[in-house]
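Lab notebook, bench 4. Still working through the backlog of constructs that have no structural model yet. Next entry is a single chain of 207 residues. Request: give me the C-alpha cells for it.
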Amino acid sequence: MNIEELLRHIVGEQALHARFLNTLSLQENIGARKISASELPETTTYMVLKHAAEEHRHAYYLKKQVAKLSPGQFLTYEPDYLLAPRGSRLYLNKLDLETSRYLKNTLRLTGADLKFGAYLLVTYAIEVRADYLYPIYQQVLNEVKSTVSVRNIIVEEQGHLEEMIEQLKRFSSDWEHHAKIITLIEERLYHHWITDLGSAVHYSPKF
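Model written out:
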C-alpha cells in the first residue's frame, strides 16, 4: 500500500487525522511504558531514562496536536478515538514478543539480559521505522499547509536511532545480523498495521 497516498487520505479528513494523531500518541506511549518496564532500578542508565522521557513527551506532544484539529475530543485512548485500535496496540506488543522469543531461542538470554536485549532491538527497529514514516507524514502535512507538525519528533527519533546503534555494538559483535532479523519481523507487522489503517479509513489503493 502506498503510504503517502494513505496519509494524504487521512490528513484530508479532519476527524480521521485527529484519530490518526491519537493513534501515534498511543504507540509512543506504549513504547515509553515498554522502556520503563525493561528497567532495573540498580542498573538504569541516563540513556534509558532520557529515552523513556522523550517517548512520553512525544505521546504528550501528539496529544496536543490532536487538540489543534479537534479541541476537547479524543482525550483518551479508547477504541473509538483511535484508527485500527486492535492492530495499533498489537503492532508493538507483537514485535516485543517475537523479539523476546528470538533472543531467548537464539542467544539463550533470560531475565534482565533478555529484557534489555529486547529493548535495544525493538527500539532500533521502531526508530528505523520512525525515520522512514515521520518524514513522509511531515511532507504530506507541508503539502496541505497543516498547522500540525512532527518536525521535533523527527529530530529526536534520529538521535535515538544513533544511540541504539552504539548500544547494540556493545550488546553483540554480531548485532547487525540480529538487527536485520528483527527489522524483517517489524516490516511484516508494519505492513499488517498499514493494511488495518487502510481498512479503518476505507482507503482502497489506486492501481
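Notes after review: The CA atoms of residues 67 and 166 lie 36 Å apart. The chain is about 75% helix and 0% strand. Flag for follow-up if needed.
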